[in-house]
Amino acid sequence: MEALPSPDNKKATITYKNALLAVSMIFLAIGVFFYLVWSILFDTWTDPGIYAFCLPMAVFGLLGVGYIKSGAYDQ
Fold it and tell me: How many domains does the chain have?
């Protein structure tokens, strides 16, 4: 069994970059999964109301992931 890391360990695992990536992935997942579940349940694959909710969620998720992965965030 491995020992737990000591509290003196200054390596931060929760950084602003990791938090932004996590929120972006959550937005992307909500947008895609909500669209799929709603469309399967109600058989409405071309509902403009669902597009108005899901598309911005997915786009902001993709933009956030692209921003982090492109290296533009690194200062």
Answer: 1
Which pTM does this prediction carry? 0.77
Containing structural domain, residue 51: 16-70
* Residue 43 belongs to a domain: yes
Residue 10 lies inside a defined structural domain of this protein? no
Q: Residue 28 and residue 55: Cα distance in Å, rounded?
A: 9
C-alpha 56/C-alpha 49 separation (Å) is: 12
SS3 of the chain: the string is CCCCCCCCCCCCCCCHHHHHHHHHHHHHHHHHHHHHHHHHHHCCCCCHHHHHHHHHHHHHHHHHHHHHHHCCCCC
Tens of pLDDT along 22-38?
999 999 999 999 999 99
Domain membership of residue 2 (yes or no) is no
